[in-house]
Amino acid sequence: MNAFRTCPTTGLKVHSQADALIKANAVVATVTLLIGGIAALLVLLTRWQAVLLLDAEMFYRMLTVHGMNMLIFFIIFFEMAVLYFASAVLLNARVPAAWLGWVAFALMVVGTVMVEWTMWTGRADVLFTSYVPLRAHPLYYLGVILFAVGALVVVGHFFAILVVAKREKTYEGSVPLVTFGALTAAIIAAVTLLHGAIIYIPTFLWSLDMMPVDPQLYRLVWWGLGHSSQQINVAAMVAIWYLLGAFTVGAVVLNEKVSRSAFVLYILFISMASAHHLLVDPGFGPAWKIWNTSYFMYMAVMASMIHGFTVPAGMELGMRLRGATQGLFGWLKRAPWGDPGFSSLVFSVVVFGFVGGITGVTFGTEQINIIAHNTLRIPGHFHATVVSGTAMAFMGVTYYVIPLIFRREIAFYKLAKIQPYLFAIGMVVFSMAMTFAGTFGVPRRHWDISFSMAPFQPEFSPAVDLIIGVMAVGGLLGIVGGAIYIVVTVVSVFFGKRIPEGESGLGMEGRGLPLGITNPPRPLTSADDGSDLESRGWLGTIPGTMVLVLIFLLAFITYYFVNWNLLSFVWRVG
Amino acid sequence: MFRTGIEPPERVWWKKVHKTEKVWVWIAFGWCMVLFAMMPLWHARGGQNPSGIRATVGADAFRDRVNEFIADYQVGTDGNIPVVEPPPGSDIYLEAAMWYWRPVLRLQRGAEYTLHLSSLDLNHGFSLYPLNINFQVVPGYDYGLRVTPNEAGEFHIVCNEFCGIGHHLMVGKVIVIDPPAAADAGTPSDRADVGSDASADAGGGR
Ligand code: HEM
Ligand SMILES: [Cu+2]
Ligand SMILES: [Cu+2]
């Protein structure tokens, strides 16, 4: 039996074990997304003080369930699928040790089940950070360890696939940029998971009363895991940006050197990231905080600003080369907004940059953190990064994975088309409202901000009630978007119309296939060197993008200095 | 020739960067340097920094210090929490534990105090409401922050680090009073709204 099939759409040769491993990881990712999503609804309806659905104990339990399932299980299972896709599929390579892939998968599933069991039975009401000396059942820590070991094995497997592909010359020259991005994610993952082992193994022993763990040291090493893993998400997300750009509008890579160097910056400076969470901690001095929170003078921020430019610029140039040359934004007008892969990509870039990126850098400034730490500003920030950015990109790429890997049409395609809009608009409203509520000092992870049972009742400004209401509406909209995503993917994968073997989907509009498959962008030839494009001075051949990033910069500068100004009004402290 | 991100690049991809892209890379670099420079600059010129005096302290030792502090400066109780009014410039101690802040502090506007924060059990979060000043309180560590209240009024301390099922019950209080007219500076203010029922169990109780 031939272990490979040739993808009729892309011409790539796909190993059957790559297919199977991608499917398995993607399916479990979706299951954990569902669990996390149900918890999201419950948590949201509790934080909406007017509803206050759960009691305190259930609230913290469901918050733990939400954090673990979303941030750890959903994201990482999906990333495992991305790693197999970016290596084996994009490089036409075989999976050298499929059994190892299944061992890793089993470890991760067993770890997940252990953690779920401890959480749902109330043995781990510690939130996903499980700050020592808060204590969970030992199986909780053991579950996380098994999960991390499994993920580490997949990372190793990914490296092995790259080596085999190179040796067997399944591709020419260097790996594609998307694979390079996934490689970046994998390298960071290796470092991160090592931090995970360093912290969870002692903590597991501590939970068995076998050794002490210092609470401050725990926070330091835990965030070495916790924040660096966000950089895995960022790298994987950026890789998917380039991937979706290529699929949907034939986005080109402006300059491989620049984009690859930006990925290298991620690798170099990531391990410093844990400082973001320790800026107002007692254990560290200002020099350490400044140096580390800025990841060596903001070099990782610079990398993101570069990708935030090259991705839209590549889309603009790709479209201009194919004739969308009108005005500054003619290319945006002609873009395939009805392709859920494309709309997800655009929202992911825009919300990640404008909301997530700007707030993140601002709150991660040593002194500004004083007016942000542990307020709702923080979940406001990361629902714009890891949710509207990473999860949104993952959702978008699913609309291509279903036809290309699962070989099914997308069910309820009309719903799928509006899904990115609902999710993105909902999450933007939700995270901005949350961030705004946080500027009033509303704490995160808090069951009762009316403090009705506390010895004193501080009263929040009446504006807060309104803002929390807006947050709830945005969150509900986002949950509807998320629910549609789950229904569409589950129905497509299990009951969707099969795409016959050898069928490329070309020209088959009106079926459940995204435009990038039915009407893919025309392949470029060496004649498309851009020499006939109008160049507008220093705006060059990508004037639209240049204008957009300058607007971004202006928003960034404004928000950043407004926050310094807010800080300057509070008590002197030092 | 241009390629997409899913195609292997041309053999030699180390190419000259296009002018527009270069402009943006330099703009980004410049902005990152501004971001970096602002932090040391604020240490030199700004009034709000999280530096503090940092030391380790055991739970028992910290509790003793808090008790001593309360014994020295107690002027009353609020509910069953002692209220203290320490002299300007002094070291003041705030104990965080499941699920209370102790004592209630009465401070003078414009005076500097060194506020020592520590926890007897879990991590807690010091969040001064409605100012939105936030610090992490970590067991085993003494965070000594020099604070200068800049307005009179009643403030609350909300716990914003999850510390178990009673997390939302953990609210403390800080009262800032206007400095007394020059002559009687240093004596506890008689404008106290809580000073009348100073109880015998000063410093104890819990
Ligand atoms: C429609 C979707 C979602 C809604 C409405 C939602 C809502 C919420 C709410 C209300 C909180 C509680 C904030 C607090 O009290 O501190 C929260 C926390 C959180 N969410 Fe989401 N969320 C959604 C999706 C996601 C996704 C997709 C992820 C990750 C990929 C995610 C990751 C987290 C994390 C890590 C926390 C923090 C938990 C903690 O503080 O322990 N959320 N979310
Ligand atoms: Cu607390
Ligand atoms: Cu608390």
Please tag this protein with its features.
heterodimer, A: mainly alpha, Cytochrome C Oxidase, Chain A, 3 strands, 1% strand, globular, B: 206 residues, alpha+beta, Immunoglobulin-like, 2 domains, seven-stranded mixed beta sheet, five-stranded mixed beta sheet, 33% strand, disordered C terminus
What does this structure look like?
The complex is a heterodimer of chains A (574) and B (206). Chain A is mainly alpha-helical and 574 residues long. Chain A has a single domain, classed as Cytochrome c oxidase-like, subunit I domain (Cytochrome C Oxidase, Chain A). Chain A contains 16 helices and 3 strands. In chain A, strands 1-2 form a two-stranded antiparallel ribbon. In chain A, a hairpin with a 6-residue loop joins β1 and β2. The radius of gyration of chain A is 23 Å and the shape is globular. In chain A, 61% of the residues are buried. Chain B has 206 residues and is an alpha+beta fold. Chain B has 2 domains: 33 residues; 154 residues, Cupredoxins -  blue copper proteins (Immunoglobulin-like). In chain B, 20% of the residues lie in helices and 33% in strands. Chain B has a 7-stranded mixed beta sheet. In chain B, strands 1-10-7-4-5 form a 5-stranded mixed beta sheet, with helices on one face. Chain B is elongated and about 80 Å long. Chain B starts with 18 loop residues before the first helix and ends in a 29-residue tail after the last strand. Classes of the chains: A mainly alpha (574), B alpha+beta (206). Chains A and B meet through α2, α5, α6, α7 and α8 of A and α1, β8, β9, β10 and β11 of B. β3 of chain A pairs antiparallel with β10 of chain B. Bound molecules: protoporphyrin IX containing FE (HEM) and copper (II) ion (2 copies). The site of protoporphyrin IX containing FE has 25 residues of chain A, from α1, α2, α12 and α14.
